[in-house]
């Protein structure tokens, strides 16, 4: 079974702040043991393919207060010419004059979607200043992945990460493909799950959640499987291959696994 990973971070050690390294090391991430290899684009692509991954969404982050800065330009260049990678860009609204212009610039440079980090950058995702961004994404049929729920990184403010803020965005941009990264992690699993059921284009993305707990967090997961998308949150896990194997061992039908691990993401990314 082919897999699409909707949530992969790349970056060199110097891009991230110490707290990120401490967390990734505590997760036993192979990133440190195989650093030179896994920060080389061609070799990293091979690593993903060996884990069964056909395509991976590659994420930048501009979060100087919390996690660090992995520039859009770095990600776009890293992904150049490698078919496995689907580069996204990011916009940090408090830091730019015109979020819409910023987004357009990176679409022009090859970005195929957008990641937003409300709790790391301190903004509400339903803020009106972001509406031009959503309008562009909706018209260009590019998905927007939004961090929701908790984060262990120092300085993040969880009030910005409540999934309910995306209810308004989903209503105002019905054609926009929106994904709630981490499925409202912490105390908003039910909220994220419910929202993804009522809005046709709002999806629940499961990165960073222990596979063995998924059916505890989302007992009715299989009924809503068309709206759920796999992501690993590499390098915040040991290995992607093991993460995928644990998902495959869940008591879900083969059809459901196919939707979760591949088909839904393929449709959202228009592959
Ligand atoms: Zn992440």
How many H/I helical runs?
13
Strand arrangement across the biggest beta sheet: 6-7-8-9-10-11
Mean pLDDT: 97
Distinct small-molecule ligands in the complex: zinc ion
Beginning-to-end CA distance, first to last residue:
16 Å
Radius of gyration: 17 Å
Structural class: alpha/beta
What kind of sheet is the major sheet?
6 strands, parallel
Order of helices and strands: EHHHHEEEHEEHEHHEHEHEHEHH
Identify low-pLDDT runs. Answer: none
Question: How are the elements arranged and paired?
Answer:
Blueprint: E1 3-9, H1 18-26, H2 30-33, H3 35-38, H4 41-50, E2 53-59, E3 61-63, E4 68-70, H5 72-79, E5 85-87, E6 89-90, H6 99-108, E7 114-116, H7 118-121, H8 131-140, E8 144-147, H9 165-172, E9 178-181, H10 189-198, E10 202-205, H11 214-217, E11 228-229, H12 240-248, H13 254-268
Parallel strand pairs: 1-2, 2-5, 6-7, 7-8, 8-9, 9-10, 10-11
Antiparallel strand pairs: 3-4
Bound molecules: zinc ion.
Zinc ion is lined by residues 7, 9, 233.
Note down, in words, how this protein is organized.
- The model has no long low-confidence stretch (mean pLDDT 97).
- Helix 6 (99-108) packs parallel to helix 8.
- This protein has a 6-stranded parallel sheet.
- Strand 3 (61-63) and strand 4 form a beta hairpin.
- It contains 13 helices and 11 strands.
- It has helices at residues 18-26, 30-33, 35-38, 41-50, 72-79, 99-108, 118-121, 131-140, 165-172, 189-198, 214-217, 240-248, 254-268; strands spanning 3-9, 53-59, 61-63, 68-70, 85-87, 89-90, 114-116, 144-147, 178-181, 202-205, 228-229.
- By secondary structure, it is α/β, with parallel strands linked by helices.
- Bound molecules: zinc ion (ZN).
- Zinc ion binds at residues 7, 9, 233.
